[in-house]
Amino acid sequence: MTVRWDIFCTVVDNFGDIGVTWRLARQLVAEHQCAVRLWVDDLRAFERLCPDIDVSLREQWQQGVQVCQWPKDWPATEAADVVIAAFACQLPSAYMDAMAEREVTPLWMNLDYLSAEDWVIGCHGLPSVKYKHVQKYFFFPGFQAGTGGLLREADLLERRRQFQHDDAAQKSFLHGLGVVREPGARLISLFAYENAGLASWFEAMATDVCPSHVLVPEGRVLGDVARWLGVDGLAPGALHRRGGLTVQVLPFVRQDEYDRLLWCCDFNAVRGEDSFVRAQWAGRPLLWHIYQQEEDVHLEKLEAFLRLYTQGLSESAEKAISGLWRDWNAGQDMAEHWKAVCAEHLELAEHAQAWCLEQGSRADLATALVKFYRNWL
Q: For a tag on the chain, would you pick the N or C end, based on fewer CB atoms within 10 A?
């Protein structure tokens, strides 16, 4: 019989939470033949990732997934075989009662945030709280053996390889976004939160002898970009040049198109969790703007990832990329470390490919979840 899954998502950070759960839901349907209901409390945010969504509907089907609006007046609903509370969201009390009333207890998991911290390995798969007789388990994505791995479709790396070796396909894709790549220019994507360090980074690129072309999808960083350019506002299609830097604003694109954008670029600046993982699958050097947390807890997570990611780099390359990440996440002057990253670009590019292949050798997150359920049975 088909295993039924319910995935619950509350949209906290605009696109990160729904981005992860939407990818997971689609993969469980397409590759593991699961029946998935995705409960979402903010269909407006979801619509940006999946324009086919009708925000007025309480229930609809998208790409094989039953998408349900998470209502305040929770309807009588039978609990699924597997229940995922994404990122520690609180399930409706009536649904928790429905879990407890099932003849066969469901598997209840908290799909937690991605982290490279050492303690994650020790906590992954452990039981958490109980509701009546229903046990909840921790499930941690991660970068090391002993974690749940990363979201990755079965054919993703091969599709990326073919695309990156097809100049015509890249040119056609960029042309569809209104982008004409200048020969010899670094192509950079920028998806970030507001950041005081942006001006120093853009200034360094504008004064560099090597030209840079920065593609900025609609998002929160556009205000900082506009201030640096000295314009009142920016909309998709805007194109500005200053010195060796070209800045171009792109429309917000759906997830599959964003993947191809990352694959086209020589360097990708990303934010949050979903785009962070997809940039790693692009196999190109990257810059991560981590989601800020109280008491700078996020900086511990940043350092934990850097310790893993930079293993095997030369001292100069490690200092360059680590310094750039720290500058960016502290909103500090990035010029010196950006110049160092450019000088170490070949090594960093080779390292990004090697890191991608290493992570790709591990079981992906959806497969790990399905295996956990089968073992639990």
A: N
